[in-house]
Amino acid sequence: MHARLQQLGSLDNSVTFNHSYGHSDADVLHQSLLEANIATEVCLTALDTLSLFTLAFKNQLLADHGHNPLMKKVFDVYLCFLQKHQSETALKNVFTALRSLIYKFPSTFYERRADMCAALCYEILKCCNSKLSSIRTEASQLLYFLMRNNFDYTGKKSFVRTHLQVIISVSQLIADVVGIGGTRFQQSLSIINNCANSDRLIKHTTFSSDVKDLTKRIRTVLMATAQMKEHENDPEMLVDLQYSLAKSYASTPELRKTWLDSMARIHVKNGDLSEAAMCYVHVTALVAEYLTRKAPAVSPALSILGMFRQGCTAFRVITPNIDEEASMMEDVGMQDVHFNEDVLMELLEQCADGLWKAERYELIADIYKLIIPIYEKRRDFERLAHLYDTLHRAYSFWGTYFRVAFFGQVNEDGKELLKLYSDKFERKTEFERSHNIRRFMFEMPFTQTGKRQGGVEEQCKRRTILTAIHCFPYVKKRIPVMYQHHTDLNPIEVAIDEMSKKVAELRQLCSSAEVDMIKLQLKLQGSVSVQVNAGPLAYARAFLDDTNTKRYPDNKVKLLKEVFRQFVEACGQALAVNERLIKEDQLEYQEEMKANYREMTKELSEIMHEQICPLEEKTSVLPNSLHIFNAISGTPTSTLVHGMTSSSSVV
């Protein structure tokens, strides 16, 4: 073979292609075929030589599980055939030779370092985009063989190594190869799927579905990349597309981190600082999860720290959305050497800085709880002093809020959500009531006749509760609705609901540490003033009058009566608070409201056929602690009212 190669290399110039003019078409064709055949024969001779070499020196090539300098040189020669242009005939033989190499030396590709597997995947995928259909078919079948052999090598458990390297290679090809993702490449993906579906030997395993999942991820990456160019001036769509990419890279820490970082930059640019902070949290949790799984290999000291034993779950106190970082697929050959304790510390500090800028001060302490033990172990007192100073300032601030709007077909008017629901018994602070929220409510009025608005005796409303897939805030602003629950309230239930709201609002205003006089007086005026008291009294006349009560269930009538008793009590308490705080120039206004209050209670007594005593300046105010509890819960004093959910109750 050596002699044959020397002969081919020393051919006289007369047999090589001559560019001089004067040759006939037949001569040109002859010269072209001659050079093509010589090139192909050189390739085939080299392949035969490599095949003999791998047989003769198999033991040396298998040293250190196939990761040795000799194997690297042999592999580089094989790879060269794919990197240089070859004839169609030559490439078919190259694919056959590579299949033989993979079969004889599987540990080279499936154990330890992933560099040779990665390089092979990259070159095969380039061939999957070839203009020649025969080459695309051969390349697709070779890639399938690489995955299938990986699956067999693990005892038919998985082909994680090849799966990860294919995804990474596709990402690299997007930037390196023009046209990838077109029809030719899509056809190659279909060939791979067809190979998996027709392979009877793995019919009763997960291999076929795993291959389908891989090709689906590749298509997601390609589609999102193409769409990003179209929507580069639409930040919301751009983030959504990058999110789909980050999600497709859930099993590849480096690439997922890259896209999450990119999303954070877009959020910062657009002033969406809460979402940017969540991106930082997810990146940090991702690295923590990686280090947890790699701790013995990366740094034995890491395992002594609780946060590394917990991995990403250490961040669940900040957001339950963090659980998605636990979906990382493990591959022993991943060499993400830049993920270490120092990188994690930098990311944790970035989290704290992002949360500070987003004014989510309440969460900074949870991040610092993870950092402080490490600085204490290092005895870095300067950094500790800085952290405690930041914590001191963070505890001096109050939380802020964000607005949520609903987009979709449920709310046909596209109106902003009417109410953000929260569990007021479990969420004690204002921050807790605006963080990690995933359920939202809006109401739409309707009547049985088809009109949207009607009299109180015919007015119904539909309450819709939406549950999002993730909690707000998240790494992106638009979160899909997972499911929705509808509840229709009949007219008397609407009355109970509306009156319960008024009771809760008045009680909350009265129990505030600093009473908002403007809001208090507006609520009082809307409750007791003659010119506008048609609202509360209209409900009483429609549902509690003797001529109407028989049309409604007894338990609903009793419940509405109890709400009205509490409404009268709440109005009396509000009048007492207002009288205690007003100045002389409002005394006349106060007396007018008290007179209206007496008239309202008098009419209610007549309608309900019971004596309802107005509570004025002699009203015994509830103890402060109970007032505060009621204000937080938004719940009337009597437990009877718990039977009807109001718009300020638990969702």
Kindly state the number of beta strands. Answer: 3
Tally of DSSP helical segments: 26
Oligomer: single chain
Low-confidence stretches: 300-305, 410-425, 617-651
Strand order, biggest sheet? 1-2-3
Order of helices and strands: HHHHHHHHHHHHHHHHHHHEEEHHHHHHH
The proportion of residues forming helix, as a percent range, comes to 55-70%
Q: Determine the mean pLDDT.
A: 82
What share of residues are in beta strands?
under 5%
What distance lies between the first and last C-alpha atoms, to the nearest angstrom?
80 Å
Structural class: mainly alpha
List the helices and strands and how they pair.
Blueprint lengths: L1 H8 L15 H32 L1 H4 L1 H4 L2 H15 L4 H17 L1 H5 L4 H13 L5 H21 L6 H17 L6 H16 L8 H24 L4 H14 L4 H17 L3 H26 L7 H5 L30 H17 L6 H15 L2 H14 L42 E10 L13 E13 L8 E9 L1 H21 L5 H12 L5 H11 L1 H4 L4 H28 L5 H22 L15 H10 L18
Antiparallel strand pairs: 1-2, 2-3
Helix pairs in contact: 2-6, 5-8, 6-9, 8-9, 8-10, 9-10, 9-11, 10-12, 11-12, 12-13, 13-14, 14-15, 15-17, 17-18, 18-19, 20-21, 20-24, 20-26, 21-24, 21-25, 22-25, 24-25
